[in-house]
Design a protein that fits this description.
By secondary structure, this protein is α/β, with parallel strands linked by helices. Helix 3 runs parallel beside helix 4, helix 5 crosses helix 6 and helix 9 packs parallel to helix 10. The strands form three sheets. The protein has an eight-stranded parallel barrel, surrounded by five helices. The protein binds phosphoenolpyruvate (PEP) and manganese (II) ion (MN). Phosphoenolpyruvate binds next to loops.
């Protein structure tokens, strides 16, 4: 971090300011120009509040050189992080560091027949994880809200029946205990900056699938991950799921550039959700292929055995047949990228 002092600041005032900074655990490199003094902060500046410094009456300008996140930063962790999960069938599935992990299943768990049938189909097609929402974040309070704990029980039944590890969304920390058998906890776009929730998840040791908020920057995504990491949980998977823009043709705009950006800045695996990113089932395959070609470590795809009758997100859900065809193509893409499904 570099701090330019206001022109004409007296030497004694600069010295006092320097000791203030040193009390915060950094060393200060002092540089005296003709009209201005510039201070270079050396050491860990993640806990230094740049905005607070900017408000100081002696400060002209503050420039951050280092990113405000440390544990999520590739600089301090050059190797890719890999998340390994063993299903009830004893098979280990991985996401990251050369492994492409696919998560597939319906938007919401609806009935026992539906979730078990979809689970069997996606497993047959080669999916590594089963998804299914039990607690759903819906824009309208009048829309289907998910089956809640009953949905969770059905998802656990599907886990048992197929051996697939499961992914489901947590909206309320009071449900955490009921998520004991859930393999990956999803934090949805709407909760990406729910800092109370993120702090609690830092204290649990389950993998977290952190979806990008639809109006959040790359730095904000990494700062959200930093909250979980700072609490001691280093099992995080980042997910690009489309951001808001002006065009309503698609539900969101898939920010493919977020994949190389997040992977450059961080060691954490990055997966893509082409279903919520586009909101249109016929676009899912093209965007899934693009994501793998852009370096994604995995995909989360909505698959429904009867999309027309789905209680949630049917228009963006693909059939098990379409998913199987996509998986066959994705294997070739993964191969080109040097990744193993
Ligand atoms: C979901 O995956 O079911 C979901 C609601 O996604 P998002 O939080 O990205 O909207
Ligand atoms: Mn959905």
């Amino acid at each position: 971090m570099i701090i330019a002092m206001k022109p004409g600041t007296a030497g004694t005032e600069v010295q006092e300011f320097i000791s203030l900074l040193e009390k915060q655990g950094v060393r200060v490199h002092f540089s005296q120009g003709i009209t201005q003094t510039v201070l270079g902060l050396v050491g860990d500046t993640t806990a230094i509040d740049a905005e607070a410094l900017m408000a100081h009456h002696l400060v002209e300008k503050v420039i951050r050189v280092q990113e405000p996140y440390k544990r999520a930063n590739r600089l301090f962790h050059p190797d890719d992080t890999r998340i390994d999960i063993t299903g009830p069938d004893g098979e280990m599935r991985s996401i990251g560091a050369g492994r492409l992990g696919t998560i597939a299943g319906p938007c919401s768990v609806e009935t026992r027949e539906q979730i078990i049938e979809v689970a069997r189909e996606v497993k047959k097609a080669g999916a590594a994880f089963l998804r299914g929402g039990a607690f759903k974040p819906r824009t309208s309070p009048y829309s289907f809200q998910g089956l809640g704990s009953e949905g969770l029980d059905l998802l656990l039944e599907a886990k048992k029946a197929t051996g697939l590890p499961i992914v489901t969304e947590l909206m309320d920390i009071s449900h955490l205990e009921a998520f004991a058998e859930v393999d990956i906890i999803q934090i949805g776009a709407r909760n990406m900056q729910n800092f109370t929730l993120l702090k609690e998840l830092g204290r649990c040791n389950k993998p977290i699938l952190l979806k990008r908020g639809y109006a959040c920057t790359i730095t904000e995504v990494l700062m959200a991950a930093e909250y979980v990491l700072a609490g001691g949980n280093d099992k995080i998977i980042l997910c690009e799921r489309g951001i808001r823009s002006f065009d309503t043709y698609t539900r969101n705009v898939l920010d493919l550039s977020a994949i190389p950006a997040l992977k450059k800045q961080s060691h954490l695996p990055v997966i893509v959700d082409p279903s919520h990113a586009t909101g249109i089932s016929w676009m899912v395959s093209a965007m899934a292929k693009a994501a793998v070609a852009a370096g994604a470590d995995g995909l989360i795809i909505e698959v429904h055995n009867n999309p027309e009758k789905a209680l949630c997100d049917g228009e963006q859900s693909i059939t098990p047949e379409a998913f199987a065809a996509l998986m066959a193509t994705l294997r070739k893409y993964a191969d080109i990228e040097g990744k193993r499904i």
